[in-house]
């Protein structure tokens, strides 16, 4: 601890111990504790207490009967725990203090215990303290373990959860000594704390009270999840019959926790290989649970790396059951897949699906989400029933729209339940999108779908048909439309490509032709979310197929580019920003066509540049301006024709506007643009031939000065130098990086330049830098000469500045000394503002 | 037993990070999703792991409702929806949806400024999150699904702030968010109808305070600014992008106009246009005066307040500058503060609370020598003033709202434990309702007795009316029929109709009972005695003595038999149909008392 803090600490402890002095800000104590944790991690706690006796005094003081705030009491308990984590310090405090803080005579028996923060502090204190064998004896002796048992059922979620975690920790700690060998099954041979905890778990598993069973299962789940020592195997062997007996009850109690436990055991390498009938238990559980409860277990089983094939098959059948029911109810053949066929007959699932709308929607959404998670995994079941799954997703979407006309009663009932259900629509669209990412044997077959006329091609046609139906429908909500756009893009992306050509396949092009009028309509939607999703979709498509003839032709034949341009003036800034991005991309791809007007004789692209510059200079919102800067940076990188025509003029204009921008991200992107320009300019200077391997030789001064001239002419340096002291740290950091890059590039030519006579000299630039650092703005510097720039680059301590900027803008305010000062300063000045948040 | 459960993950006995989970009739709703300005790590957000352990978030939660755009109510939303993985609906009012991104960007900027982009939501995430929002109008009932509906009420506080009623069937909860029961310069007072919710969850920031008139505070503020400007000083007012800043702008603009003052007023980061835009767009959300004067002149098109340029800070002479961020965390407000701090003629006015770890907090707690980078010390000579302009209901206002809504129970959030305790007692005494104040993580469970509407068939009603008994809401009475539960509907119909509707055959069920009577006479004589007794007692009923010796009263059949073991005792077998259950049990109790002696 530094001396300044040491000096402030006694006063602070005195304030904390004084019940008349309320603590100002509830974050202060948390931060104070963070600081003590850092100190004790780095050094001896004992020494800390000996050097700062005020700390022990504080701990003693809080035990006195007084009206102390529960926050301070909680803090003190946690602090004591942090100190006592080191064994020597534990011994130092053990005599009287620790038993009084954590035992019956302490807050445990007092009125303060009613405050959840005190109970939480008590648990967290013990959690920190329990690090060594002495702590275990202490826990056993002071009866803490029994209290922890009861706190598992605390009214506060935080306390109850922490109590469970603490039991896991204590169990692990007490068994640590046995970790080397194989402990015996006999509980009598186990350490006292472990015996107690395991005994409690056994008792809880025997209980008829569901909360108690849940607590026991949760403790076991965490234990097996975190610790894989041999003793956990012994524990599982001992407890598995009890866990198994839960399955005999109807309904199975605490099913959710039971599933978590079984999966945790199955994931543990030591436990899953042990011979205590885990796979049988899992199979039995799958059978006993309701379809809703069994879903997560089935997914968990299918995600396991090593698991018997029979069990996997059983789990997959369970997972597929709801969708199989949907297919069957709508009179569709689940297909040739055995798995789906065997999944159809479960009446429980049908009952669950039809019992109520909420149950039906819940079960279907969960199933779709589980299958979506499973689909991309390498260990997913093989063969993967792609066709029936696609069929089910499409059917669900049709049921939700009312466009399916099932013949059976169950089908009609399903239709009535799902009609207009946005939740199922969203889940089904997500799943449908995922199904497009098919790899493996199916992928090869997808190609043939487009070309053949039978079976699966129809299915893919149906996929696009249902997607178009959703995109067209006036009833689709904005979130559903967004997902429909995303799914459509994924399906278009997955359509097969002719080798050597990345254009869209003819069928996909047909889809595209149908899609563009829909997109056109959506770009005119009164809902900004829809317009924006449409533009994002267009951006994705242009990025992928902008260079392909088929796509270009279809797009240019539509009204979409024209509408997009109109959206540059949309009332919603998010939409303007998306329109800027699309227009930038369309222009890059030569897809932005407007007739050459007399006002812009330079051609159509000039007018877009002017329009974007106008947005950059005048738009009142940051998002469109940021988007313009991104477009410009991309254009510069790509040597966009318009920019390449007169790059210097372009750069000068853009940098001038960007440097004045009020949005920090626009200024930061201005520096990014400057960096690209700098790289391009100096790149030319360094290697004329991009393929030439040139050894690092000192660059001659003349060409360097020449190379820097364009940078000076566009006033890049004044922008960068000013930005070094920008009030927003990320901008200053970016500028610092840029100048360091430049200095590294030009380092080899140092000393060989002469200062020029015109323009500001080095001294005046340095003076300006000092003024800017002090926060003054002053007049523009005027044209800088390359020689002056290089000299200034050498004289400014850029590394030092970078170090300071890396600290974070609040590093002074968040220092421990500052924290202590703040806490002391607030004493006595707490007034109306103490809880006056916003 | 149906119940409502409420668990605050934030704002339980504290202020900041509002996030309250409500479970009502099987639906789970999250009320607000705020952040805590005082932390820079994970602790700034509510601990969502307590929800994620219930399975997939989108499956567990039916919706998220955001009461208003302040960061302690919406700051964690993009994190929750784009990083934690909630993909369900989010409800807020139109102004809140429009203004939220500005505040979130403001917050993102501060966070990135401090720590860089690490583990923080991006601008794209803010947009994606906003696109999931379903914007609602005031007093519009929105169906989240078939069962869950929500409705927004005006809350004052800030532009677009709303209280929400959450209703499932006949059970309902009202969440106030932050509200203000007195109108201010630009907003009206909160209002709710007598909706009698099962539970009212109300903020309690000023649980023990009766606030002085806002006019006094405004006068004070203007006086201080005026004095500073008159002596040639510069006044810095650090503010958050939108909200209180606009209120203060109106105040200064009007004052400048009235006093014909010339000193410039600047508003940084181009927010005047933005404020203009939003207040114009949502003019119906402002107070009546603004709406009225809007016809002549838009109050938010300021004549005296101009956009700030960084170079202006160096200009000589007095000026007033509104700059962001509001707690002097970083950025422009801090830069101007550093520049002006050394001059005692200047003044900084903090119009809101500042968390520890900011320069704003330091100067408010009276620190005048601030350590800056490189061991430099900044001496604060400028005048430091604190003026609270936060628009929360005071104790009186909270009581007023409870009186308006007439809830069955009240739950306090967004306040300090000690103050809540006081208000809780007051509410319990005055309104005779239970009042709760759970800490974060604590669950309050309220049993409810839902009223389930049951439709009565016309046939059954007609039959009742034929008996001359007209339905009367004030006199509840027993009605016999068959309850049919079908398609989530309950209907009471006559048993005949039920049989017909359900296609069932009738089975007659008779209740039977044995009554032992001490009577040595023969069975027929005992039956005769029973007949005579009942005939004398039940004058309104048809009592018959049948040839086989049994006695009937309506559908009730009584037969006498000898006792198998005791010849001095007779057993009366009494049986009746369910329609005559009342009479049957009455008869049984009558017979159990024995037969009158006189006839023996």
From TrEMBL, chain A:
Compartment annotation: Cytoplasm
Cleavable signal peptide: none
Keywords annotated in UniProt: Cytoplasm
Primary location class: cytoplasm
InterPro entries: ARM-like, ARM-type_fold, BRAT1
Keyword Methyltransferase annotated: no
SUPFAM superfamilies named among the record's database cross-references: ARM repeat
Coiled coil start-end: none
Family according to the record: Belongs to the BRAT1 family.
UniProt name for this protein: BRCA1-associated ATM activator 1 isoform X5
Protein's organism: Vulpes vulpes (Red fox)
Organism phylogeny: Eukaryota, Metazoa, Chordata, Craniata, Vertebrata
TrEMBL record, chain B:
Nucleus listed as a keyword: yes
Pfam families: Beta-Casp, IntS11_C, Lactamase_B_6, RMMBL
Main location: cytoplasm
Domain Metallo-beta-lactamase, residue spans: 16-210
Entry cofactors: Zn(2+)
Keywords: Cytoplasm, Hydrolase, Metal-binding, Nucleus, Zinc
Matches recorded under Gene3D superfamilies: 3.40.50.10890, Ribonuclease Z/Hydroxyacylglutathione hydrolase-like (3.60.15.10)
Entry keyword annotation includes Hydrolase: yes
Gene Ontology CC terms: cytosol; INTAC complex; integrator complex; nucleoplasm
CDD domains reported in the protein's UniProt record: INTS11-like_MBL-fold (cd16291)
SMART domains for the chain: Beta-Casp, Lactamase_B
One GO BP annotation of this record: transcription elongation by RNA polymerase II
GO molecular function: hydrolase activity; metal ion binding; RNA endonuclease activity
Quaternary structure and interacting proteins, as annotated: Component of the Integrator complex, composed of core subunits INTS1, INTS2, INTS3, INTS4, INTS5, INTS6, INTS7, INTS8, INTS9/RC74, INTS10, INTS11/CPSF3L, INTS12, INTS13, INTS14 and INTS15. The core complex associates with protein phosphatase 2A subunits PPP2CA and PPP2R1A, to form the Integrator-PP2A (INTAC) complex. INTS11 is part of the RNA endonuclease subcomplex, composed of INTS4, INTS9, INTS11 and inositol hexakisphosphate (InsP6). Interacts with WDR73; interaction is required for the assembly of the RNA endonuclease subcomplex in the cytoplasm.
Name of the featured protein: Integrator complex subunit 11
């Amino acid at each position: 601890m530094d001396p300044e803090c040491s000096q402030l600490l006694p006063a602070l402890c005195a304030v904390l111990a004084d019940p008349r002095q309320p603590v100002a800000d509830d974050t202060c104590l948390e931060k104070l504790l963070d600081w003590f944790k850092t100190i004790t991690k780095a050094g001896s706690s004992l020494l800390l207490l000996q050097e700062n006796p005020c700390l022990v005094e504080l701990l003693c003081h809080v035990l006195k009967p007084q009206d102390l705030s529960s926050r301070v009491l909680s803090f003190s308990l946690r602090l004591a725990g942090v100190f006592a984590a080191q064994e020597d310090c534990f011994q130092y405090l053990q005599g009287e203090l620790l038993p009084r803080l954590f035992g019956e005579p302490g807050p445990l028996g007092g009125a303060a215990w009613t405050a959840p923060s005190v109970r939480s502090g008590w648990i967290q204190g013990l959690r920190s303290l329990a690090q060594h064998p002495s702590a275990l004896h202490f826990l056993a002796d002071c009866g803490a373990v029994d209290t922890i048992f009861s706190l598992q059922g605390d009214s506060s979620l935080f306390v109850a959860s922490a109590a469970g975690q603490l039991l896991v920790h204590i169990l692990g700690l007490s068994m640590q000594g046995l970790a080397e060998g194989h402990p015996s099954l006999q509980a009598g041979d186990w350490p006292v704390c472990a015996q107690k905890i395991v005994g409690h778990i056994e008792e809880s598993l025997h209980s008829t009270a569901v909360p108690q069973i849940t607590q026991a299962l949760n403790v076991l789940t965490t234990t097996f999840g975190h610790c894989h020592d041999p003793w956990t195997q012994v524990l599982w062997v001992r407890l598995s019959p009890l866990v198994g007996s839960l399955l005999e009850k109807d309904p199975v109690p605490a099913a959710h926790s039971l599933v978590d436990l079984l999966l945790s055991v199955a994931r543990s390498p030591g436990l899953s290989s042990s011979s205590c009938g885990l796979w049988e238990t899992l199979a039995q559980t799958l059978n006993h649970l309701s379809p809703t409860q069994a879903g997560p277990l089935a997914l968990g089983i299918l995600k396991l790396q090593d698991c018997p094939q029979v069990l996997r098959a059983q789990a997959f059948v369970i997972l597929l059951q709801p969708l199989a029911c949907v297919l069957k109810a709508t009179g569709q053949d689940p297909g040739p897949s055995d798995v789906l066929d065997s999944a159809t007959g479960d009446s429980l699932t049908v009952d669950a699906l039809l019992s109520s709308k909420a149950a039906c929607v819940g079960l279907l959404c969960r199933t779709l989400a589980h299958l979506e998670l499973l689909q991309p995994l390498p260990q997913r079941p093989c063969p993967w029933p792609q066709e029936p799954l696609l069929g089910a997703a499409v059917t669900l979407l049709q049921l939700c729209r009312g466009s399916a006309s099932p013949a059976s009663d169950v089908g009609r009932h399903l239709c009535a339940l799902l009609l207009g259900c946005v939740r199922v629509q969203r889940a089904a669209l997500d799943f449908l999108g995922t199904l497009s990412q098919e790899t493996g044997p199916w992928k090869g077959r997808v190609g043939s779908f487009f070309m053949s006329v039978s079976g699966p091609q129809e299915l893919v046609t149906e996929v696009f048909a249902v997607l178009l139906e959703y995109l067209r429908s006036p009833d689709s909500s904005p979130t559903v439309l967004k997902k429909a756009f995303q799914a459509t893009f994924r399906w278009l992306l997955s359509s097969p490509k002719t080798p050597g050509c990345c254009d869209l396949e003819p069928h996909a092009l047909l889809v595209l032709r149908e899609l563009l009028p829909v997109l056109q309509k959506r770009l005119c939607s009164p809902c900004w979310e829809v317009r924006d999703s449409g533009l994002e979709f267009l951006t994705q498509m242009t990025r992928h197929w902008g260079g392909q003839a088929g796509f270009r032709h279809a797009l240019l034949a539509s009204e979409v580019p024209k509408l997009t341009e109109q959206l540059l003036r949309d009332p919603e800034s998010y939409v303007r920003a998306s329109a800027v991005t699309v227009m930038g991309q369309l222009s890059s791809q030569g897809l932005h066509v407007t007739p050459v007007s007399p006002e812009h004789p330079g051609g159509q692209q000039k007018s877009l540049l002017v329009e974007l510059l106008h947005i950059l200079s005048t738009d009142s919102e940051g998002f469109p301006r940021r988007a313009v800067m991104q477009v410009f940076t991309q254009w510069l990188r790509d040597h966009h024709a318009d920019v390449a025509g007169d790059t210097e003029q372009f750069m000068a204009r853009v940098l001038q506007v960007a440097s004045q921008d009020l949005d920090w991200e626009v200024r930061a992107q201005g520096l990014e643009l400057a960096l690209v320009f700098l790289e391009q300019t100096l790149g030319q200077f360094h290697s004329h031939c991009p393929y030439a391997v040139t050894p690092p030789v000192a660059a001659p001064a003349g060409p360097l000065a020449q190379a820097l001239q364009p940078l000076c002419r566009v006033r890049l340096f004044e922008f960068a130098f000013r930005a070094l002291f920008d009030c927003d740290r990320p901008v200053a950091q970016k500028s610092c990086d840029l100048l360091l890059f430049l200095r590294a590039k030009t380092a080899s030519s140092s000393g060989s330049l002469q200062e020029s006579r015109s323009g500001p000299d080095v001294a005046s630039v340095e003076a300006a830098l000092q003024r800017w650092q002090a926060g003054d703005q002053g007049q523009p510097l005027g044209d800088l000469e390359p020689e002056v720039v290089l000299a200034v680059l050498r004289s400014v301590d850029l590394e030092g500045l970078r170090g300071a900027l890396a600290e974070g803008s609040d590093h002074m305010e968040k220092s421990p000394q500052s924290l202590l000062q703040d806490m002391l300063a607030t004493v006595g000045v707490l007034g109306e503002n103490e809880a006056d948040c916003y | 037993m149906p119940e409502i459960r409420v668990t605050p993950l934030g704002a339980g006995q504290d202020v900041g990070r509002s996030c309250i989970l409500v479970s009502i009739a099987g639906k789970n709703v999250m009320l607000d999703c705020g952040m805590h300005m005082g932390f820079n790590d994970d602790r700034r957000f509510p601990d969502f792991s307590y929800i994620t352990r219930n399975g997939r978030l989108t499956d567990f939660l039916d919706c998220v409702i955001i009461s208003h755009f302040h960061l302690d109510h919406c700051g964690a939303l993009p994190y929750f929806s784009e990083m934690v993985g909630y993909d369900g609906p989010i409800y807020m009012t139109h102004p809140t949806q429009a203004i939220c991104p500005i505040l979130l960007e403001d917050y993102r900027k501060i966070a990135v400024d401090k720590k860089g982009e690490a583990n923080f939501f991006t601008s794209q995430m803010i947009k994606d999150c906003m696109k999931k929002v379903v914007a609602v109008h005031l007093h519009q009932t929105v169906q989240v699904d078939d069962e869950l509906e929500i409705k927004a009420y005006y809350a004052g506080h800030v532009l677009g702030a709303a209280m929400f009623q959450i209703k499932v069937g006949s059970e309902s909860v009202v969440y106030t968010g932050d509200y203000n029961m007195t109108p201010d310069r630009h907003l009206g007072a909160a209002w709710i109808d007598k909706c009698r919710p099962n539970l009212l969850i109300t903020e309690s920031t000023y649980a023990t305070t009766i606030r002085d008139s806002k006019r006094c505070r405004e006068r004070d503020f203007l006086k201080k600014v005026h004095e500073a400007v008159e002596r040639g000083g510069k006044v810095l007012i650090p503010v958050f992008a939108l909200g209180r800043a606009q209120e203060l702008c109106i105040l200064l603009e009007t004052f400048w106009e009235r006093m014909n003052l010339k000193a410039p007023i600047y508003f940084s980061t181009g927010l005047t246009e933005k404020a203009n835009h939003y207040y114009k767009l949502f003019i119906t959300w402002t107070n009546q005066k603004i709406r009225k004067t809007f016809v002549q002149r838009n109050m938010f098109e300021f004549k005296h307040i101009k956009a700030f340029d960084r170079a202006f800070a160096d200009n000589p002479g007095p000026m007033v500058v509104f700059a962001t961020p509001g707690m002097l965390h970083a950025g422009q407000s801090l830069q101007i503060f550093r520049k002006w701090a050394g001059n005692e003629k200047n003044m900084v006015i903090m119009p809101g609370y500042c968390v520890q770890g900011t320069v704003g907090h330091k100067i408010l707690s009276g620190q005048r020598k601030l350590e800056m980078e490189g061991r430099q010390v900044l001496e604060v000579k400028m005048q430091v003033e604190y003026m609270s302009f936060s628009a929360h209901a005071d104790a009186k206002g909270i009581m007023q709202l409870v009186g308006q809504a007439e809830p069955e129970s009240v739950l306090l959030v967004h306040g300090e434990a000690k103050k809540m305790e006081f208000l809780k007692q007051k509410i319990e005494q005055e309104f005779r309702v239970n009042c709760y104040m759970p800490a974060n993580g604590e669950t309050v469970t309220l049993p409810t007795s839902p009223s389930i509407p049951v439709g009565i068939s016309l046939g059954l009603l007609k039959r009742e009316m034929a008996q001359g008994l007209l339905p009367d809401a004030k006199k509840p009475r027993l009605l016999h029929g068959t309850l049919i539960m079908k398609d989530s509907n309950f209907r009471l119909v006559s048993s005949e109709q039920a049989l017909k509707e359900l296609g069932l055959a009738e089975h007659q069920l008779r209740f039977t009972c044995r009554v032992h009577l001490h009577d040595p006479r023969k069975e027929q004589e005992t039956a005769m005695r029973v007949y005579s007794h009942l005939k004398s007692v039940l004058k309104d009923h048809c009592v018959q003595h049948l040839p086989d010796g049994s006695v009937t009263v309506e559908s009730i059949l009584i037969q006498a038999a000898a006792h198998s073991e005791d010849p001095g005792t007779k057993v009366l077998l009494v049986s009746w149909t369910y329609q005559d259950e009342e009479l049957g049990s009455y008869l049984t109790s009558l017979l159990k008392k024995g037969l009158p002696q006189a006839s023996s």
